[in-house]
Amino acid sequence: MANDHIDLTVEPGEVHALLGENGAGKSTLMNQLYGLLQPDEGEIVVDGQVRTFRSPRDAIAAGIGMVHQHFMLVPVFTVAENIALGAEKVRAGFLDRRRARREVLEVSERYGLPVDPDALIENLPVGAQQRVEIIKALTRDVDLLILDEPTAVLTPQETEELLGVMRGLSDAGKSIVFITHKLKEVKAIADRITVIRRGRTVATASPDTAEEELAALMVGRAVSLEVDKAPAEPGREVLTVSGLMVDDDRGVRAVDNVDLTVHAGEVLGIAGVQGNGQTELVEAIMGLRRPAAGSIRVDNEDLTGMSTKQILRSGIGYVPEDRSLDGVVKEFTVAENLVLDQYDRPPYGNAFQLDPGAVAASARERVEQFDIRTSSPDATVSTLSGGNQQKVVVARELSRPLRLFVAAQPTRGVDVGSIEFIHRRIIHEREVGTAVLVVSSELDEVVGLADRIAVMYRGRILAIVPPDTPREELGLLMAGITESRPGAGATEPATEEGTK
Amino acid sequence: MTGVSTATAEQSAPTAAPVRFWDRQRRLGVGLVLIGLVATILFGALAAAETARFTLSEDAEGAALSINGQLGAILFGVVALAAGGLLLAGLLRAYQTLVLSLGILAFVLSFLCWQVAGKFLPLVDTASGTLELAVPLILGALAGVLGERSGVVNVAIEGQFLMGAFGAALVGTMATSVWAGVISAAVGGVLIAAILAVLAIRYLVDQVVVGIVLNLLALGVTGFLYERLMQPDAQAYNQPPKMPEWRIPGLADIPVVGPVLFHTNGLVWLALILVFVVHFGLTRTRWGLRTRAVGEHPTAADTVGVRVRGLRYLNVLLGGVIAGAGGAYFTLVATGSFNKNMTSGAGFIALAALIFGRWTPFGALGAALFFGFAQKLATYLSAVGSPVPSQFLNMLPYLATIVAVAGLVGRVRAPAADGQPYIKS
After folding, report:
1. Which CATH class is domain A237-315+401-499?
2. Contact B293 A114 (CB under 8 A)
3. pLDDT digit string, tens, across residues A459-500
4. Single pTM value for the model
5. CATH assignment of B124-409, given 1.20.120, 2.60.120, 1.25.40, 1.10.3470?
6. Between chains, do A74 and B300 touch, taking CB under 8 Å as contact?
7. CA neighbours within 13 Å on the CB side: how many for A120?
8. What ipTM did this prediction achieve?
C-alpha cells in the first residue's frame, strides 16, 4: 500500500510542502489528486465540494494543475503546441496558432517566466522546459499547482529562481503543493509542511522546525546529515584521464578535453547539472563508449580499447547511474545479481557451469554484510525497494579487490537510511586505499563525500575546488560562470554563453 | 531574468558540434558519383546510337521528344556525375535535396535513354500507369500514417488490401454496384483494423506480430472463400462492375497532365485528395495535434486530458477504411475480379512507402509515385524485351526502403511511441 489513510489540507495561497523520502508515497498521493490514479478509499474535496477524478481531465476542470517530475512535454512540438495540447483553441476547424502563441506570451509575461513560444522542446534546457510546464498549468487557470520534485534537475541558481516564481504565484492567490525531499528548500519556501513516511502522514510541521527534526520525522529515526570522515591521505595516482574527448549518441561532443587524476585513498567528486557530459565521461572510463580522443590510464595501463569486462576485472568497480537499466537484472534473483560479474570464474563457476552452492553461500554473506533487506537471496531483485536494489549493486561491485571505484549517482532514488549506508561504504573504500570517483547531480552528496570537487559544465571541467568552497560559488560554476575565480581552470568565459 | 539564468538557459545546447568531413552530403555525393559513373560508362556503352522517342500519344506517331539514345545516356549520366561532384565538393549545401533529386532524375533519364534507344516510350501511358499503380500504395501508406503517427504500427496493410479487394468483388457483384463494392471494401479493411486495434491497444500484444498474423488470416479467409464461393460461381460472386472513368471537360484537354489527372477513375482522386486532407488534418487541426502527441509522448497527452487509447482506436479504424478502399482498386480498377492473394505484397510496398516517405502524407505520396513508376517501368521493359530483368525494378521499393532506413537519405525518425502500447501506470 503506497498511501494509508493520508489527510492533507491545502489553504488558498499557501505553499504546502510535502516532505518524504523516495518511495514514501508522495507521488502516489499527488497522482490521485491529479486523476492519474484512483483512490481505493477516502475523498477529495475542492472548495467544499466532494470530487471524483477519473482522469486528469476532471482534475484540470476542478482547477488542479501538476508539473511532473519527468516533464510531460512532447519533444518534437513547439512550446506553444505543448501548451495548447488538450485545450486547443480552434478557428473554423483549424488550430488557432496565433492565439496559442499570444496566450503563452501573456502568461509568460504576467508571471515572469520567459520562454520562446516557437522553440522546439527538444532544443530547450531543462530549466526552460520546466517554465513551459508551469505556464502550461497556468494557462489552464489552476487554483492549485502541484510541483513534483521540481528542483531535482535544476542548478542552485535555477532553484532560487523557481522558489521566487513560487512565491509570486502564491502572492497571486494560487495554492502550491511542493513535493520534495530537500530540507533546505522546504524551509526556504513552505508555509506549512506535511511529512509522509511509508504511506502515512506522520506530522504537520511549521517551516521553523529544525532540519534535523524534519529529517528524523521523514526517516523515522535520528539521522546524521553529514558524512563522517577523516581527512584524506592521497597516495599514488591511480586514474589519469588526459585530453579526453567523447561524443554522445547524436555525435555531439559531450566530453571536451577533460583532464583528471584520482589518487589512491581519495574521493574525487564530479559536480554538475545532469547532462553536462558526466554520463559520457563515466561510460568512456568503463569502456562502454569509445572516446574520440585522449587517454584513460589506471596505474599507467591504458584502458582505452579494452572491453568493459576486462576493465571490470582489472580491479575497477562500477555503480552505473541508471540502476534498472545497467545495474541489475530485475528478473534475476538477488543471489544471481550478486555474481553477474563473477559467474564464470571460480568459486562461482567456470565457462560451462555455475556452482549454485557457492553462489548461494556468497549471497547469504553479502546480504548480511551489506544489510540488504530481502525476504531471501532467491527473491527477484524487482521485489526489492530502490535502496536495497542499489545495495545489491554496491555489494557486488565492492566484493572484489579494487584499485578504482566509479560510482555514478550512487544514491539516486534511494531512501535516506540506505544513503547513509552507501555513503559509509564509499568512505570505507577510500579508507582502504582505493581511488574513488563519485559523480552526482546532488550537490550535497558531492560536497559530503568528496575530498576534491571537479565541476563539469558542457563537457569541460571548469574547476577543481576543495569541498569547503562556498555553495554559492559551486552553484555559479555549475551554471558555467567562472569569473569569480579568475584562472580557476576555465577555458572559456561564461559570458559568451550568456549572450546567445 | 538575471544574467545567471540566461547563462544556464543554454546549458543543454550541444557543445560545439564536431565538424565531420564525411557528413551526409558527402556520403550522398559519393553514391551519386558512383551511379553517375555507371550511367555514363555502362549505359552509354550499351545504348544503341539510335533515336529514343518519348511520345505524347499512345503510339509511335505524333509529337514526341526525341534524342539519340547513346548521346542521351551519356549526357544524363554526366549530369548525375556532376550533381554528385557538387555534393562531394561540399557545394550548394542549401540546395542539397534539390541537387540530389536532380542527380537521381538524371540517372533515371540516362537509364531510359539506353532502354528506349531505337524504340519509343509513350509518356501519357507511363504517367497514368504510374499514378494508377501508385493509388493503392498511397492509400495503404496513408492508412499507415494514421496508425503510426498515433503510435500503432500497422503491418497489416496487406491484409486490409486483401479484405478490401475481396469485399469489393463480392458485394460489388451481388449488389451490381461499384459504390457498394467500395463501401464494403472499406468495411473489410476496418474488420482487420478492429482486430489489430483491440489486440494492440486493449491487450497490448506485440503490434508487428499481430500485423503479420492478420495478414495470414486475411490471406486464409479470402483464399478459402474464393475457392468455395467465387470459383464455383464466378458470375454470381466474382464479376463486379468496373469503376467508371470520369472526364473533366476542359482540364482533360491539357496535354499529358490532362488525360493523366482529369480523365481517370474516382479512386485516383480520392487518393490524391486524402493526401492533402491527412496532411492538413495532422498539422493544422486539433485532431492532428492530439494524434501526433499520442504517437510521440502518450503520457504527456494523457496528463492534459487527451484520451490516448480512444484516439488510437479512431486512427487505426480510419486507417482501416482507407486501406480497405485501397484494396478495392485491385478488383474494381485493375483486374475486374478477385483472385487468391491478388495483392501479392503491395501492402508491404505501401509500408515501405510509408517509411521511405518518413511517416508524412506527402512523403508517402512521393514514395508511392516512385514505386509506382518502378513497377510501370518493369512492365514496359519486359514488354519491349529489355535485357534488364524486370525483377530488378520490382526490387526497387525494398532496396530504397533499406537505403532510407539505413539513414542514407536524411534522418528517418519514426514517431517516438510508435509500436508501444500505452499502459497507465
Report:
1. alpha beta
2. no
3. 999 999 998 888 888 888 888 887 654 444 444 433 333 333
4. 0.79
5. 1.10.3470
6. yes
7. 6
8. 0.82
